[in-house]
Amino acid sequence: VQLQASGGGLVHPGGYLRLSCTASGNIYTINAMFWYRQAPDRQRELVARISSLGDTSYAPSAQGRFTISRDNAKKILYLQMNNLTPEDTAVYYCNADEIWAPGSYAPFVNIWGQGTLVTVSS
Question: What's phi and psi for 99, nearest 5 deg?
Answer without folding.
Answer: -125, 125
